[in-house]
Amino acid sequence: MSFFSQVEKAIEREFRRWTAKAFGPAESDELLLVHRAIVEEVEGKVQTVQRGKRIFPYNHLRVRLVSPDAARRALFEAAFAGEDRRLECDLRECLEGAGCEVPSGFAVEVETAAEGARGFEVEYGISSVAREMPAARLIVVRGKANQESFPLNAGLVNIGRRAELTDALDRVVRRNDIVFEEGADEANSTVSRGHAHVRLDREACEYRICDDASEYGTRIFRGGRSIEVPKGGSRGERLRSGDEIYLGRACLRFEQ
After folding, report:
1. 137-255: which CATH topology?
2. Sheet with strand 120-125: strands edge to edge
3. Fewer CB within 10 A of the end CB, N or C, for the chain?
4. pLDDT computed for residue 4 by the predictor
5. CA dihedral 166, 210, 218, 132 (to 10 degrees)
């Protein structure tokens, strides 16, 4: 049985929706078969060691997609690579969902070729070279904040309804970087004083949104579906370029 069965199903549903919208249903069906085959091959490299612990012994994958047709190769590039590194994100999500330890610096390169023995090939390796994080920012879509756009230059960015939060002794216990000013907009009233934060995970090379036990909750809108961010959870949810983050009724868009 697949380690990833339930996680794979969720990822496949999202991949199908996205490719059907971007390329059409016929192309989506073919791309899904390729996507599934790659995931299954990578799955076969997972190792179970002492006490049932699962590890993936490689941190660098090179996936080569083969087609003699230039248009087909361009389609593969758009579906599996692109700025949001879709295949890498899906493979990482599969590994995490299976409780598998993802190695530091995990990265997936996607390339195409006109000739090859198979429709795709995966090369596995280990790299010690750290990958530079692409620039990222949050843009205000709904509500009024202290800026319209916020570059994510720090490892932690706090979001809330006040610039500073103090305790009973008037000591500052939290400073918000993105402030939805109280009374400035109707949507702002649904943002808690210390609502959420965005955290940079350098090892995983990704940004995550965490809800800080807010009153009205935090959710991500992606590809036609809503993803609830667990309240008060330290792990949060991984962000992808284009995600809309709802803080109550206020909204930010993540771009990378």
Report:
1. Tumour Suppressor Smad4 (2.60.200)
2. 107-113, 60-66, 120-125
3. N
4. 56
5. 120
Q: Say how far apart CA 187 and CA 211 lie, in whole Å.
A: 17
| 5-125 and 137-255, same CATH topology | no
Q: Are 199 and 207 in contact (CB under 8 A)?
A: yes
Helix, strand and coil in the chain, % to nearest 5: 25, 35, 40
Give the residue extent of every domain in the chain.
5-125, 137-255
What per-residue confidence (pLDDT) applies to 1? 40
Give the dihedral sign, CA 172/178/183/184: positive
Map tokens 């190695």 to a residue.
Answer: 103
By the 10 Å C-beta count (0-12 exposed, 13-18 middle, 19+ buried), 99 is classed as exposed
Q: Mean pLDDT over residues 37-56, rounded?
A: 87
- What are the pLDDT digits (tens) for 159-188? 999 999 888 888 888 999 999 988 888 999
* Structural tokens at position 198: 């965005």
Q: How far apart are CA 239 and CA 197, in angstroms?
A: 12
Fold of 5-125: hypothetical protein PF0899 fold (3.30.2320)
Q: What is the DSSP letter of 180?
A: B
Give the tokens for residue 183. Answer: 């009374």
Residue 83 has pLDDT above 70, yes or no: no
Q: What one-character-per-residue DSSP string does 81-122 give?
A: STTTTHHHHHHHHHHHHTTEEPPTT-EEEEEEES--SSSEEE
